[in-house]
Amino acid sequence: MPNPLDAHRRRIDAIDAKLLQLLQERNALAAEVLTTKIDAGLPVFVPEREQAKVAAFRRAAGELGLDAGWAEDFLRMIMSSSRDRQSHADFPQCPGGSRTILLVGGAGQLGRCYGRAFTASGHTVRTLETGDWEQVDQLAADADAVIVTVPIRVTEQVIARLGPHLTPDTVLADFTSLKAGPTAAMLAAHAGPVLCLHPMHGPDVANLSKQLITACPARRPAASAWLRDQFRLWGLRVVELVPAEHDRIMDQVQGLRHFVALLHGSFLRETNLAPADILALSSPIYRAELMMTGRIFAQNAELYADIVFASTERRRLLERFLTHHQQLAELVRKDDKAGFVREFEAIGAFFGDFAAQARAESGYLIHRLADRFV
Amino acid sequence: MPNPLDAHRRRIDAIDAKLLQLLQERNALAAEVLTTKIDAGLPVFVPEREQAKVAAFRRAAGELGLDAGWAEDFLRMIMSSSRDRQSHADFPQCPGGSRTILLVGGAGQLGRCYGRAFTASGHTVRTLETGDWEQVDQLAADADAVIVTVPIRVTEQVIARLGPHLTPDTVLADFTSLKAGPTAAMLAAHAGPVLCLHPMHGPDVANLSKQLITACPARRPAASAWLRDQFRLWGLRVVELVPAEHDRIMDQVQGLRHFVALLHGSFLRETNLAPADILALSSPIYRAELMMTGRIFAQNAELYADIVFASTERRRLLERFLTHHQQLAELVRKDDKAGFVREFEAIGAFFGDFAAQARAESGYLIHRLADRFV
Q: How many domains does chain A have?
């Protein structure tokens, strides 16, 4: 007896085959658009154009009775696919032609990520590793920019060692995740242009497009404008920020977050509750939480220790966090539910409209996570 | 002068129009498949079929030179769209015909969510609220199931009050997020079948399909089999679990997680760092973290207090968590980086292969989040 659903399933399969074919055609066209942009020296990612395209797609979906929000997700997935392909294509070059860039620690993951991008844009990339200091003069002498991308614990001493070998117009830059110390070190070690950078993404991104980098031109900004232009042409979002404010926020975004993730993982071990056992019973939101904690432990312990122990200020913030925990825990110890509710409401007032945005945005995440992994 | 990109963009627009049309056709077919399934009493969500479909789609995408992982996400988005439409359609009914269900606290968010589902499957749904106790005998007398879905702080007293009004074959069930206390209360209050449930999702899900519910048939399991069948027919994943193990895991998944989110939000307020200010400088992973903390404060303070203060065991776990924090913080206070690295590595060993899975899965989330919100 034939299954009554078979005919429908065959028609769905035929539609899926057509969908894939259209996606392939669309990607080919997007690749041609990219080549044309690069030839014309146009930026790869133009937020306004993307917004307009999304709005038109939502309208068209709505007219067909499809959910507009869903259609937007769908289009963004398609566009992200063509952006990912850009990582394999050539990259546009900043005005003023090819430069020479020395990446100090360029064999590290982040160094290689940027090395590939500079090379793809037609620049000359050199690297200097621990064993290469004898050649430092040859490597640094005619470099347009020297970018220090070494572990945070050795950044300042590497900068001091580099200083005497730089020529006056070379841009000295760094990728350190803390900015006050390295900025002072660069200004002390080098009399020329100084640009303090912090790429706010991992080395394993498919593409630099849409990623964030903070920049503080600490001396002679005009001399490093080409470098910031190059970042923007790759689609990076360049946010200018002074070192003190950068560090104040990063102490929380990086220091506290990594400490709390460690605390979470460490407590699961302490209570002998294996992540895999919890997973079967996790709501999508706890699943997301567990994955964001777990990802830490697939990475390098030293790297995380460097982030958590990055500065005295950061360690002080963590001590203050413990004191705060002790105060909140008092409410639990005393079974003071009314006090807990008051604290909750005060935080709600502090968060304001952000809480509603957070609910919508995390709701989207939860939905995607449930689609994909459950 | 015509823009050289205009012709390409027009072709991309034409492809997008075709994509939307195909999606509309596909949704219509999927809706017909659903109707056929409901008429035949077949379950709405069959994991094996979905896996087979995904595998075939990945293969087909690969043959066209498209990335298979990306194609899988894409297909899952399409399938989730047709599942969401199912929430507006009729729902299949469990074998044995229409039942009468009394939802005690059925006017609450979760009660309404399940009330809609029972009604859509052709069952008779009644509700009992605070002011309705005078009618309790009429409401409960011929009910096939009575489900208690009231705030955790009053669950046990509501169960005790209901007991004398139930007939011997009525299934007594509850939706409480803690199971030991309510299970004991139900077994004490009612001599008939008892089923302890915990729907592990919010009331605002588009669809029950793929959501998780824990179930413990605490007395006469056969008498409540129809209810568990009904859940499965809606696509819910029913996990059977004894109350003690449920509570041990939930103390962490719910109690600790909500406490830590409160601690995070509370510390941002203490340090006067507004979420909106951090957002501009957040990596996608911190953005996800911030959204999952922020979502809490768009919700009801009492509800969260109930979760955190749910039981003495839960409060003890939170005290143990503080002690553990004090120990870890010692490493920071003493600047003991080596100790920190040792602790990190011990946790890594405890997490084992899960860490790699977590990295992949959270990487997917980060990618989606960057696509959608940046």
A: 3
